[in-house]
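Title: Prediction job returns without error message
Component: structure pipeline
Severity: low
Priority: P3
Assignee: unassigned

Description:
Job completed but the reporter wants confirmation the result is attached to the right record. Sequence as submitted:
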Amino acid sequence: MITTELLEALLSPDFRRRSQAEEHFQALAVLDRVQGLMNQLGNTSPSIQLLTPVLLRRDILKLTDINLLNELISPLLTSLPGRPHVGHCLAEVCATLSIIGTDSAADAALQKVLAFIEPVLKQGDLISIRLLADLADRAPMAFARVATTSLPCLISESSATSSASLVDAWTHVLVNSAIATTIKTPSLARELPKLDELQVDPASSAAQTLSPSLTSLLQGYGTMHDEESIQSCMEHLSQATVQCPSLLGGNAAVLNAFLQTCLQFLDNSKYSSSIQLSALETLTSFLSVGNVKRNLITRDLANSIAAKAIPVCAQLMANGVNEHVDEWASEPATLVEDAMEDEDEALFAESLFESILQHLGGIALTVALPLVQQLLSSEDWKHARAGLAILECGLVATPISLVSMLPLMIQAGTSLSESANLRVQWQAIRLLGILGETSDPSIRASHAQAILSRLAMAVISPCSKVSAMASLGIVSFCRGSGEQDDVEDAANYIHQFLQELLNALVNGPLSSSAKDTGSITAQVRAMGAVACLAESVGEKFCPFYDQIMPGLLATAQSPTIELTGAAVEAATIVGTAVGLEVFRDDANQLLSWILPVLQSRTNTHVPLEQLLSACARVASVLGEEFAPFIDIVLPILLERANEQSDISITEADESGLGSSKQSQMGDDTDSFTVAVPGKGFTKVTINTSKIQEKSQAIRAVYEHAKALGALFGPYVQVSLDVFLPLLHFPYSADVRSTSAQTLAAVFEAACAAGEGSGDMLIPQKYFPSLATSLAKQIEAEDPSDMEALYALSDSLSEILYMVHQYRNSELHREIVGQFSLNHAQALVQRCMKTMVACLERRKSITSILGGALTGEDEQEEYLGLLKAEEVLLTPLVDSVGYTLKMFRGKFVPIFESLVVPVLGPMLSSTNDVRALHSALCLFVDCVEHCGKEAASKHANRLLEAIMGVVGEGNAANKDLLQPSVYGIAQISRYAPGCLTASHIQMIVHALLALTDCSKEEAGDDIYLVEVAASALASVTLFGQSSDLKFITQDTLVKRFLNHLPIQQDEDEAKICHAGLCYLIESQVIDISRNAVRITQIVGQILSDVGEGEDIASAETCENLVSILKVMRSSLPQDMMQQAYSTLDPEAQQAISAAIYSTSAVVTP
């Protein structure tokens, strides 16, 4: 029974009395608690009046009896006047009914509440208006059905703009109501839609029904002077931007009113900085919405926004920093960069400034750049610092548009990095680091010396913040934009200044013996810079190894945890760069320190994850030499990877409802709260640091599997068992993607071990599970996490490719022994579903690129998204292709039911080059591998697309030429009846054009040129069209011989080299006239085969040797000597070995 005394005890300051009361309260049955609390609603004690509905709300969510929930409504309505917490209870009743009951039950409950509060709503009763907002939030679908259409009338009759509190309350109602109209399915925890996927829809219910009311409310914002109400209103509008932007942009009137409202709050003569920041945040969120900046913001509007917002941001960035430079400089650098406590506003303004630049592009830059010039030339250090910060924002948000400004940025960064003011100096060094991350080649070509010299000077600064930032700048220069070409470009310039940079690092922070926080941070950053320098230049670091490694090894035994971990990490990265011969002894020395720690598990001096990652790097260098240590390291890695995730689900209160936040105890946990009918408020807490450790352990296993290959065999089964379930790990995309990559590496090791032992039982057992699990997760993965989706797809493709590599071996049948056609169909179905979604996204992105963009930077952004989708298509297509090749003719029903409906139309009606490329690849695979019946059935459709590609001549897309030319070869072999005389003439001329260069001249196009030579021979010399009127046979033979041997594609090579034997034996090729060339070709083929290249069968090799013997016996000796003299030593040796051996078969 719940009495007044019990409730008073729950509020008691006496811990013992309160604890006993809580224990007694929790021991009561939920129904008894609800009934008792309902009886206490009439209690006149002010404190109990507040407590009772709070406790009641929590228990309402635990109810599952619909009748009981309905019975609560009337008494709650009676108690509502003057008590907002009772309104929360009513909202929770309606919310629970909307999820566990029928639509009609939820609607009836909501109508009952609305009928009760409607009279006081019209009188402007704040409690009832706020209840309305709660109802829209907690029971959105019922609210949209029942209440939305009546809101405009209620607002107009309630004198909504008569006070700031009314404007605030009705804004909240309108925003929640607009969001409610977008909810289509009941959910316990609604995810926010992605801004770039949101659209403003003028035809939406929010735009049509609610926007006019918001327009009238916005007109009342100008009379508001209460900062708390203004701040609350802006929060509501900001929520609308990210969940229902149609409310704000559905028609011209509301759009203009909304924008003018935001801009009016930027007036610093009337409003505080916090109001200005709220207005800027709301504005930038709206600009982030998919079609807002392209379709709604006219050039005039964009100019107005930029003219008002850019100067305000700059002012907040300048004035929002602490003016005490000495205080800032005296604070030590830390590994987690934190601003001073009172500088949050300046940092927030920087992020908003960057967002405005990103979304308004060139229009914003026209306002910002003159402002930068003024700020940089100012004698006020705050202004100079803000100018540098603005340049940094510009580099991040609009790097392409700012290319012409790079010299100014370099000049500003290098000159101000020598400023006497340490804050300006630090900001300039930071700008130089950001400049190093740009992909523009002129940065390194023209300014590498200026940037790296300044960074080298700053590294030795006595201010730990400046020194640490300079080391980070070196890291940025090494890594560039992250693209491989850019990293290689950076390495060329770094090598020129490597000695200067290393001297600065060694003589500066790395020579310090101080152990204060700032010095330790500077040393850790310096070791990171050394590691990146070594990683960048690779083996070119060898001459500097002895200058660096002894110090790192000494620091690795430091009693300071941060230094020890950083030294071990840097030493192993340097070792990876210089390679085995240089690093071997020191690698073993490091292992002699690390392994005892791992074995004992008692010395926690160095974080375990750093030691395990170091072992993985050492393993990647030592390779098979690491095998004796694997028994120590791998069990620990598997244990950490397999640890239960630190996920807790606990009872909670409403304070965290609908939000996700980091724990106040640190950055190691994330939590969110949901309201679960039948259970109540539930808090889910995730230990993110544990998940990160899990991911690191999985990555380390990947490195060990790749390094050891077959020697990893004893651990493949346990590793597969651990990582297969982690493909579906729900709390981290990184864990899923890393598990996928590691499974591929472990499967490769399993195949290598099985090949060595002749036993493929483990690959056979796990192949179906691996392929199926990967395909399932590919289908389920959120496409917004493109890196994870690609990793999963690429891993599936890699595993299927590994199996495909055994296609000519008896082991292949053993590996695929348990992989059925049903497995194949399910796999292809999931891959094709993902492919369809990918092609739809590409279509959408292409449409955006064809519209009005804000500038080159936005264009580059969408081209990047398009490229990411293109990259994803490759492993999806490959996975289907490898599965097709596995089942060959049996695959035809799958091909025709799943592939043809999706990609067949792409052969004739798409503007998407990658879609056509995908279709070409898989249709060619069908023609080549699925039998003559399937080839004949689908070749005509394929040939039509191929002729469209090759018919473009020099203008043909190279990405399409390769599968098209390969397809010509396959059609000529498996469906030659499709080729008419006009086809052949056009094809031959196209192939002659492609092969009108030597292989040496082909460069990156060598594969295309070789396949074109193979296709030309297949159509003209090997096939049914050998007697052509428009070209001589001698011309075709000469072109064929000029491009032999074929080395890029093993299958084409075998066909062509067998064909060569056929042409010589049938005397199409004259051995006397072509003695030198034939000898060169045969010598190269035999040499390549001897080195393990599978470019000719044993039978072909025998025939080639026989041809050579015939030539030796039938041709003049001086002719053969001349031919032999043109060979390189390896080819000469291969020919001699073949001719004089007892067997003519050349084997690797």
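Comment from assignee: result matches the submitted record. The first strand starts at residue 647 and ends at 651.
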